[in-house]
Specification:
- This protein is of the alpha/beta class.
- Helix content is 35%, strand content 26%.
- It has a single domain, classed as Rossmann fold (3-Layer(aba) Sandwich).
- It contains 8 helices and 10 strands.
- The protein has a 6-stranded mixed sheet with strand order 6-7-8-3-9-10, with helices on both faces.
- The mean pLDDT is 90.
């Protein structure tokens, strides 16, 4: 039985302003869902709410993982359950080597028993070496400071590397295509496609259709004014590219 993330009648406010207004969505392992919508529709709010960002206040509704509410769980516990968020704008941390950051994240998600010793540096080095080779990333990448001086494409590749190491059950990709040129977009999309499969569900949040030329979702949802106003298959994304969002948003206003 596959693991499932369910968002039910979700209402979320940020600094007193309501953003999500009764959103429903369900994602299971092995499925690729694309969430699209105009700016300000609530896409990133959905991503941060799923992962438990304290800035986002749940006013009503629930977020469940395998039938159990996760609203009271901290972000790190949600990560241990198998949820992962790739940020639209990954943060740079000067002085923190990527190797050390990844090892700490790996230990956090792979061992819930704090009394047991964590993986050794040598053991993790071998694991990371294999992951870098799989993703066609130079080995020197791991010795750089976390996102410090990284290009947009390198930052997104770093996110894919984290996802590969942590092996989540459900990955939320918040506008992964943001700020990428066509070459970087292809590299990142290839990395996501290599990780996708029956053990990974993907919620791909995007403003544009272009990334969907490389990552093929089974389901496409349009968010407008804090709700899912239309769902369909890959053909829905193609229609959005042809007609824009207005043909959906205008109907939603009536």
């Amino acid at each position: 039985m596959s693991d499932t993330l369910e968002i039910k009648d979700l209402h979320v406010s940020v600094e007193g302003k309501q953003i999500l207004k009764g959103l429903d969505l369900s994602i299971s392992q092995g499925d690729v869902h694309a969430v699209m919508g105009p700016n300000g529709s609530g896409k990133s709010t959905l991503a941060y709410s799923i992962m438990g960002h304290p800035k986002y206040k749940i006013d009503k509704g629930d977020i469940k993982f395998n039938g159990k509410s996760i609203l009271k769980k901290s972000p790190d516990l949600r990560s241990q359950l198998g949820l992962f968020l790739a940020f639209q704008y990954p943060v740079s941390v000067a002085g923190l080597k990527l190797f050390n950051f990844l090892r700490a994240a790996y230990n956090s998600t792979h061992s819930t028993d704090k009394s047991k010793p964590t993986i050794t540096i040598l053991e993790f080095r071998d694991i990371l070496k294999n992951k870098l080779e799989e993703l066609n990333i130079d080995q020197s990448f791991a010795q750089r400071y976390l996102n410090e001086g990284f290009s947009g494409g390198e930052k997104k590749k770093c996110e894919i590397l984290q996802m590969s190491l942590l092996q989540p059950k459900i990955a939320i990709m918040d506008e992964t295509d943001s700020g990428l040129d066509i070459d970087a977009l292809q590299v990142v999309a290839e990395g996501i496609n290599n990780l996708s499969g029956p053990n990974l569900g993907i919620l791909l949040i995007t403003h544009y259709q272009r990334i969907l030329h490389y990552i093929k979702p089974q389901y496409v949802h349009v968010i407008y004014d804090g709700k899912v106003v239309k769902s369909g298959g890959p053909e829905l994304a193609e229609k959005l590219e042809e007609k824009g969002y207005s043909w959906i948003t205008e109907k939603s206003k009536t």
